[in-house]
Amino acid sequence: MTRPQPVTGRDNAYFWEGVAKGDVFIQKCTACGSLRHPPSPMCPDCQSLDWTTVKATGQAVLHSYTICHHPLPPWEEGPYAVALIDLEVEDSDARPRIVCGTRGIANEDLRIEMPLNLVFEDGLVFAGPALEGGAS
Questions:
Q1: Is the peptide bond before 129 cis (omega within 30 degrees of 0)?
Q2: Is 126 helix (H, G, I), strand (E, B) or coil?
Q3: Are 85 and 116 in contact (CB under 8 A)?
């Protein structure tokens, strides 16, 4: 069985279009400047409906994770990790978080605050090992 693809709409199409091209974009409120993820039509800080996007650098830090043992979806081999990562965003000190799977890191090697790089596969984004001389 193949992995289901995300449902896209007006408020998140930019995110999935970016991922398909190997980039992650995060919403930025044009009224107050706050970053938000997951995508939403309204800023939770100032209730503005006006937003733009900013690009993540491709580097991240592991904030938290869990190891899923069962039930396994048919497209995963288990046990597998689900990670909560803090993204580095261009020209911002804010670190929005996304939830994603991992690639290229053994479950037993995951450590809170470890540097990561974004990996793109099958139209999705995953957390992968930091590149040599990359994420710090």
A1: no
A2: strand
A3: yes
Using CA atoms, how far residue 67 sits from 59, 81, 111, in Å, is: 22, 4, 12
Stated pTM of the model: 0.89
Going by C-beta distance under 8 Å and a sequence separation of 6 or more, which residues neighbour residue 133?
none
Residue 130 per-residue DSSP state: P
Backbone angles phi, psi at 66, to 5 degrees: -135, 150
Only one residue has tokens 């899923």, namely 68
- Exposed e or buried b per residue across 94-116, where buried means at least 16 C-beta atoms within 10 angstroms of its C-beta: eebbbebbbbebeeeebeeebbb
DSSP helix/strand/coil, 71: coil
Ordered per-residue pLDDT tens for the chain, 136 residues: 678 888 999 989 999 999 999 999 999 999 999 999 999 999 999 999 999 999 999 999 999 999 999 888 888 888 999 999 999 998 899 999 999 999 999 999 999 999 999 999 989 999 999 987 654 4
